Amino acid sequence: MSALLRTSEERFAPMTVGDLDEVVVIENDIYRFPWTRGNFLDSLNSGYSCWTLRGPDGGLMAYSIVMVALDEAHLLNLSVARSCQRFGYGWRALEWMAQQARDHGALSMFLEVRPTNQPAQRLYTRYGFERIGMRRGYYPAEFGREDAIVMRIAL
Ligand SMILES: CC(C)(COP(=O)(O)OP(=O)(O)OC[C@H]1O[C@@H](n2cnc3c(N)ncnc32)[C@H](O)[C@@H]1OP(=O)(O)O)[C@@H](O)C(=O)NCCC(=O)NCCS
Questions:
Q1: How many Å separate Cα 30 from the centre of its chain?
Q2: What per-residue confidence (pLDDT) applies to 9?
Q3: What are phi and psi of 61, to 5 degrees?
Q4: In this structure, which residue's CA is closest to atom 17 in ligand 1?
């Protein structure tokens, strides 16, 4: 019951420049190769669909960015704060972003994920994304580059 009450107080809101200090703290905590503040600013300035999810205490729990071009959406970032992981917020953020993409006219959404990122791959596969290919040397890695798995879902 209390979990239900808590959930009803969680809010998605458009990301603004004012969110970026907190966003960057989480980003640096959860990724070995994080986006920079400049990457987030570029996304905001480019008009991408950028969202935050905050808890009842106002703390930032998750954020995500999708770029829509014509009828195709590209999920560029989906992140849940370390202390909030495994509570279903990644799933909820994905649902929210899929709806944003639909609202912007997208018929499909694709993303890249590291082959070593099992939690994210599991989330995307369970959600309904299918693997459609690989991009060679897409990501920076500890020693050189790492390939990306490309996944897609019909919206
Ligand atoms: C990947 C990420 C977004 C998942 O968010 P989350 O809120 O922890 O995930 P959820 O609680 O919504 O989990 C939904 C499903 O995803 C899968 N999943 C999520 N985390 C997992 C983990 N650590 N191990 C295995 N499966 C996992 C499970 O199938 C899970 O369903 P289940 O709990 O019923 O088994 C989050 O772990 C994260 O931000 N990681 C760091 C950043 C990142 O890798 N982002 C994705 C880049 S492509």
A1: 12
A2: 82
A3: -105, -35
A4: 123
Residue 13 phi, psi (nearest 5): -150, 150
- In the annotation, is 48 catalytic? no
| Cα-to-centroid distance, 128 and ligand 1 (Å) | 14
Task: Take residue 69 and report the two structure tokens written for it.
Answer: 């071009």
Contacts (Cβ under 8 Å, ≥6 apart) of 102: 155
Q: How far is the CA of 13 from the centre of ligand 1 (A)?
A: 21
pTM for this model (two decimals): 0.94
Give the whole-angstrom CA distance, residue 27 versus residue 77: 10
Tell me if 51 sits within 8 A of 97, measured CB to CB: yes
Expressed in angstroms and rounded, the spacing between residue 62 Cα and the centre of ligand 1 is: 12
Q: Give the tokens for residue 138.
A: 């897409």
32 lines ligand 1 (CB under 6 A): no
Return d(Cα 102, Cα 60) in angstroms, integer. 25
Q: What 8-state DSSP symbol labels residue 114?
A: -
Active-site residue identified among 10, 112, 127, 138: 112
Q: What is the mean pLDDT of the chain?
A: 94
